[in-house]
Amino acid sequence: MSKIIIAGAGAAGLCCAVFCARNGHEVIIIEKTDNIGKKLSITGNGRCNMTNLDMRPEYYNSAVRKRMEGFLNVFSPEKAINFFRSLGLVVQSEDGYIYPVSNQALSVVKALHDECLRYGVSFKMKEQLKEVKKENDGSFIVRTDKGVYDSDRFIMAIGGMSGPKTTASTGDGYYICKKLGISIKECFPALVGLKTDSQFMPQDSGVRAKVNVSFMIGNEIIATEYGEVQFTKDTISGFPIMQQSGEMAKHLADGTPITCCIDFFPEYDENSFELLKREMLRLRDNRSLEQFLSGFGNSNINDMIIKRMKFGKNMKMKNISEKMARDIMDMYRSYKLEIIEPAGYQSSQVTKGGVSLGEVNDDLEVKKVPGMFIIGELLDVDGRCGGYNLQWAWTSAFIAAQKASI
């Protein structure tokens, strides 16, 4: 029986502890907060989208796709579902998105915690990891702000920098890894809103619309998404924005300007939108521009368009030319916003970047530090919204546990 220390009591750390303990090893989890599974407990708006049956390597960042297929073959969504069933946690599918039947993320945390306790996992709470040393005999000395521990294997599951105030994820793991000579890729907030020029945003926060979103560098479209977008006074968010936020953050950090082009009529093709415009043009009478648009779109979005076009909302339609009326309506299909920056780590769900996969073997053991493993968000692996990041937590936990248990 080996002694295994896991740093971090998040999704990956708890899951890995269960696997290691089930394999008959003594397991200690070191956690710097007084809560286990803090981030896991609030994921998915408290519902916890545990995984997704539509699991593909291309749903993860480009740097890891070649290896992701192999990882997912080892521990797939189906295996994750079976694992949680073995804990007594019943799940349900909503169009392939997997949630606990309870619709409570806390059920997932409790199932993992209870299994840890059943197998004798020891928790060292409110202890912050300070240093990890590899001894000549292959063992590890792990120092926290409150004590010193020894182990045969060491697993880093500390997480990244997302949600520092709510989850205390402040990038401690990167510091520890750097001291061990492990290279870290530049990090960015991901699955987060994007800030833009407030003068072209609605006066009222919380405006929502289902749209097509195109992300552009110059005149080239580099990514497209569809779904509900939320507009606040200086930020756009929602799935279509969050899915691409990490990549856009990288471009912005390189000094590349990013434009977001929004189509408020995604269900209309070119011909049907042209027919719609012809119908609307019949209404060029004594009504005001505000009245003309009142049935055309959301009132807050209408105000955005009118302001952007520099028209007065009380202008009479009979005084607006057909060409200008067309231009106003066309703006709903190509409303452009210059992206300034990501909203920041505080509101981000994951961290893009981290420990390069080139630093670890296929079993997630650190090449430079045999016996040490890195799992979860600390690695340069990030996926789309929809259960992909939690699947990586379960997958990486299982893979590391299998090798650490040898």
Describe, in plain words, how this protein is organized in 3D.
The protein has 406 residues and is an alpha+beta fold. The chain is 33% helix and 25% strand. The protein contains 13 helices and 19 strands. α1 links the parallel β1 and β2. α1 runs parallel beside α5 and α1 runs parallel beside α13 (388-404). The mean pLDDT is 96.
Task: Tag the structure with descriptive keywords.
five-stranded parallel beta sheet, 406 residues
Percent of residues in helices comes to: 25-40%
Q: Outline, from the CA principal axes?
A: elongated
Biggest β-sheet: count, sense, barrel? 6 strands, antiparallel, barrel
Class derived from helix and strand content: alpha+beta
Quote the average pLDDT: 96
Enumerate the strands of the largest sheet in spatial order, edge to edge or round the barrel: 12-15-14-13-16-17
List the helices and strands and how they pair.
Blueprint: E1 3-7, H1 11-22, E2 26-31, H2 38-42, E3 51-52, H3 65-74, H4 77-86, E4 91-94, E5 97-100, H5 105-118, E6 122-125, E7 129-134, E8 140-144, E9 148-151, E10 153-156, H6 164-167, H7 172-179, E11 184-190, E12 194-196, E13 207-217, E14 220-231, E15 235-237, H8 239-253, E16 258-263, H9 270-281, H10 289-293, H11 299-309, H12 322-330, E17 335-342, E18 350-355, E19 372-374, H13 388-404
Helix pairs in contact: 1-5, 1-13
Quick rundown:
The protein has about 400 residues and is of the alpha+beta class. It has 13 helices and 19 strands.
